[in-house]
Design brief:
It contains one helix and five strands; from the N terminus they run αβββββ. Strand 1 and strand 2 form a beta hairpin. The chain has 105 residues and is an alpha+beta fold. The protein has two domains: 50 residues; 47 residues, SH3 type barrels (Roll). 47% of the residues lie in helices and 25% in strands.
């Protein structure tokens, strides 16, 4: 009788260990699929915004192209269009793409 109980207990322990390893593997895969690329993209965006300068051409999250004319800590003033009258202050986070002023030449 004890032999049967011992076998059943060891089978349950190995099954529990298997489930723990399986869950750890699933969490690891989810990390590499979702969290890691998101952190990498955030680092790229922060680097791009830290290198932002006056005269750079930018693309906003709403799809507008403009030229940066002034920068403060978390706000930029962007000039849209050719008439020089459309200047809009916006958050730096609203910028998704930057082309440096000297890169177009």
């Amino acid at each position: 009788m004890q032999l049967v109980l011992g076998t059943a207990q060891s089978g349950g322990t190995s099954m529990t260990l298997f489930m723990v390893v399986y869950i750890v593997i699933i969490i690891g895969v989810m990390y590499f699929i979702t969290i890691r690329p998101q952190k990498k993209e955030q680092k790229r965006l922060n680097l791009m915004l830290s290198e932002l300068g006056v005269g750079d051409s930018v693309l906003t999250t709403s799809g507008f192209y403009g030229i940066v004319i002034d920068i403060t800590d978390d706000t930029v003033i962007v000039e849209f269009g050719n008439n020089k009258n459309c200047r809009i202050p916006m958050k730096k986070e609203a910028i998704v793409q930057v082309e440096k002023a000297g890169a177009a030449e």
